[in-house]
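Reading group handout, session on sequence-to-structure problems. Before we discuss, look at one worked example. The prompt was deliberately terse, the way you'd type it at a terminal:

> structure MFS transporter

The input record follows.
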Amino acid sequence: MPDIRLSSAQGKWILLTTVLGSSMAMLDSTVVNVALPRIGHDLNADLATLQWTVNAYMVTLAGLILLGGSLGDLYGRRRIFVIGVIWFATASLLCGLAPGSTVLVAARALQGIGGALLTPGSLALIQASFHPDDRGRAVGLWSGFGGIGAAVGPFLGGWLVNGPGWRWVFLLNVPLALVCVPVALRHVPESTGGVPLAEPGGAGGTAGKVRAHRRFDVLGAALGAVSLALVTYALIEARSGSLAVALTATAGVAAAVAFVYVEKRVPDPMMPLGIFASRQFTAVNLVTLCVYAAFGGFFFLTTLQLQVVAGYSPLRAGTALLPTTLLMLLFSARSGALADRIGPRIPLTVGPLLCAVAMLLMLRVGKDADYVTDVLPALLVMGAGMVILVAPLTATVLASVDTSRAGLASGINNAAARAAGLIAVAALPLLAGMGPEAYRSADAFDAAFRRAMPIIAAVLVAGSIIAFATVRRPGPECRHPECRTHGLVTTPPLEPDQRA
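And the output record:
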């Protein structure tokens, strides 16, 4: 049993390591949107390239995040975490030095692989290292500091784009990694399947070493990522109406079918389909797909709208989005406590409806929009809706499966949210009629933005209806979330895997 106390020096070093590692991925997910217009102008890129700048990262991250956790269980959580941090930093360096859009998109895909290794790894290290009495507090501090990082992200991204340039949005990860990796190797114990392997900084002797005799589902992970990539490509390029797009879409659907086939038959599937036997789990994931598709599309389009149409600087646009994150950070724990008392059905019904109202309020944001009267009301309503729904959504996911599978359920829910976001970023410009050069014209982008917001609102209403019709109050014996403080607005929080 892990016995490191949070109050000890080693415990503080472990917490610092996990916060630094996860902050790299959290910062990246919040700052890149702010830099998109400047990236487009500097690299002479069209709207499709900006979509790929976001989605190349999300494709590999969403497709491989479940596999990343399994690799840590098998080969050592610290080892996979460190590899993920180094990989992520190296890919970030490539992004920062990219001479053109093709290299940037490829480097972003590599970044997603690193994120898939370090994101579950940071939480797994806490679960495997700390004494059970301190584990909940450590997870709370980890999620709280992560929320602060998410709040700082848009402001920091805007400042970097305004000052040193958009490339520093990516280069910032390199010094973080240079601090994180030595601390991890020096202070974090290695473990696999919940069993320590060696003292931190040691040579990793054979005494007490135990390896988990499980296979990992490489084929399933590859098929999932390929399916997402092909469908995303087809949606982004659908304006051309070419035969290649039709063939790509068909291949994407075929890869998805093959993924389901493989997951049914491999001995240790990445995503055991039996978990969907729980109707509540399936229903809540459908709600997740709706609300996080809406959030992903909203934040992608809004950062562009504020800069291209309203004339905000990158710094002002990034700062403008802070209220939603701050509301999440301040009130998510209280929202979870309220849902414990009244059940999840009302929060999961009302929350998306409030967010839908916020989408319609965003129609007030046009040329020379005033922040206080035009932008802020929508963001406050949006933040209130997110506060109401995110914590109950996570709690309901965990409550809908056996406690031993709660970590897996959380991972699937997190991956579903990321996949929904990337599909939304690919599909919304198409549905709203945005041309390849739309972001270069304030009038063209504003017209498409006004078509997109009602579409997003409709998706949120659909999520609310699904929640009202399907979500029921869980039993009193269910597991409750450990990540009670949450500030990341584009994905639900990950939860610890109880196998550690």
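Points for discussion. First: The chain has three domains: 1-215, 217-269, 275-500. Second: The first strand starts at residue 190 and ends at 192.
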